[in-house]
Write the C-alpha cells for this entry.
Amino acid sequence: MTGMDMEAPVLALVGFAREHFSADAQDRSNMSLKLDHCLRVFQEAETITTRECLPPNTTRRSLWAALFHDVGRFPQYAAHKTFDDRKSTDHGRLGVRTLKRRCLLKPLNEQDRKAVLTAVILHNKRFLPSSLPDWAAVPARVVRDADKLDIFQVVLNHLRPGSRTNPVVTMGLRDDPGVCTDALVSQILAGKQGDYARMRTLNDFRLLLCSWVYDLNFSASRQAVQERGYLNELLDELPDLPIIRRVRETVLSALKQR
Ligand SMILES: [Fe+2]
C-alpha cells in the first residue's frame, strides 16, 4: 500500500462510469468489464510504484492517471457502442476532454493535473515522445505498464482453450490455430513491438502481446509478467514450429534482461 487516500477519486470514477451504463445487458456487461479494468490497472500501478519505491509526487500522479486512464471508454461506448478507436474516436484524447469537462482532477495541483492528462492522452499511443520530461514521463510509463499487465490477464482469460470468445476483447480476429502472420513474427524476432494493423488471427494477437515485453518500463513489471507466467501461457498456444521456438527464446530472454 502506498498510504495515499484514493477513496474519493475511486468513487468519482465509479460514479462517472455508472452514468454511462446502458439499459441493454450486453452493453452494460461490456462497460462493467471496462470499469473493472480501470480499477485493476489502478491496483497494478500501486504495486509498481511501491516495488519501485517511487517518490510521493510521482506515485500520486501515477495512481490518478492509472485510475482515470480509460475514462474516455465510457462516453466512447455510450456514443458508438464499440471500444474500437478506429471505428469511433481516440479514447485517450476523449479521456482528457472528459476529465477537463467534468473537473474530475480538481483536487490535484496544476503540475499533477498536467502530468495526469499527459499520461491519459499518451496511454494508448504506440510510443512515448522521447522529449517528455520526467515529471510527466514516469507516471505515463507506470500507466502503460500497469495497463499491459492487466490486458495480459484479460486476453489470456478469453483466449484459453474452451473459453467463449468475446469479439469486443478479441477484436473479431479469426481463430486459425496453425496460422501466424510472417510480418508480425519478423517484428518480434527483430525486437520490435508488433503492429496492431498487421494482426489477422488470434495467434497474431498472442504474438503482439508477447512483443509487449520490449515495451515494459520497470523491472517490477517484468517481474510481474515472469511471476504470473503470462508469456509461457501465450507461447504454449502457438503452433509448434521452429520459428516460433525462436520467438520463445527471444521474448523470454528479453524478459530476463534489463
Ligand atoms: Fe485505454
Q: What stands out?
A: The CA atoms of residues 61 and 112 lie 6 Å apart.
